[in-house]
Amino acid sequence: MVFSDHVAKLAHKIEWRELIGASASYDDTNGVEPGAESEGPTEAKKAKIAAATEEEDRRRGPETGPWQSVAKYLHQSLQQIGVLLDSLAVTRQQQYLMARPVADPSDTDQVVITQQEQDSKHFQWIVKRKALADASRVLEQALEVRKQQVTDTDAAQDVFLKQLRSLRERWRVKKIGNVILGDLGYRIFGTKFLPNETFDIRRAPVVDGLLNPHASLQVQVPRDLMRRATISVSIEKGIV
To answer: Which family does the similarity line name (predicted)?
Structure first.
């Protein structure tokens, strides 16, 4: 709040009718009743005016007065200094903001300006070259990882196909959709791949990121065919 606003606010609180009288008009600038221009103010009126002045002086805060504009400008300067200190702190960390040398247009020395421009261009060129080198290194690393993954996948695929071909040399194998089935029956004629004589062929799972190159196939045999057979052979010495 400025000083003029504060004075206007206090002026609205003064009971002018009590000071100049109820019968006085607003055009009477002397504050006296009609017909009493020659008479001076009474003691009661003087006391009321003095009381109003004291009340105004008492209510006048430290923010009002002739020093208000000075305090306002000092406060604005303090805010600008705070912003400048924050900017310097961020620039010193060089994490979010970095200061770069630029040419000063107000400098009259053209040699200094040219040197600053050259330094700024060299700095930008070095920064761009370093950024391109970092990006190239990251792309090369990603390409190497991708090549290794493709090589491992191709090797695992070759081993899988080789073992599947070896399995087909001994058993009947066929693919239905995404499922590979094998036939345990030895029928030459008639129905083949009966449900109780088939087994599933799957790719062996990867354990801890490693694939066993010697066992890339996994065969799942029905439980009713999982039986243990024992062959006993006894040799007796005969009488000749």
So the answer is: Belongs to the Mediator complex subunit 17 family.
- 134's CB contacts (< 8 A; 6+ apart) are none
What phi and psi values does residue 46 have, to the nearest 5 degrees? -65, -40
Residue 124 lies in a domain: no
CA-nearest of 204, 203, 198, 202 to 221 is: 198
Contact present, 49 and 19 (Cβ < 8 Å): yes
Owning domain of residue 210 = 171-225
CA distance 171 to 187: 11
**Number of structural domains in the chain:** 2
For residue 201, the tally of other CB atoms under 10 A from its CB is 21
Q: Which of residues 12, 31, 65 is at a domain's end? A: 65
Is the pLDDT assigned to residue 239 strictly greater than 70? Answer: no
Q: In the beta sheet, which residues pair with residue 176?
A: 179
Domain boundary among 20, 38, 65: 65
pLDDT in tens, 184-215: 777 777 778 877 778 888 887 766 656 666 67
pTM of the model as a whole:
0.30
225: left (phi over 0), alpha (psi -120 to 50) or beta: alpha
Q: Is residue 57 part of a domain?
A: yes
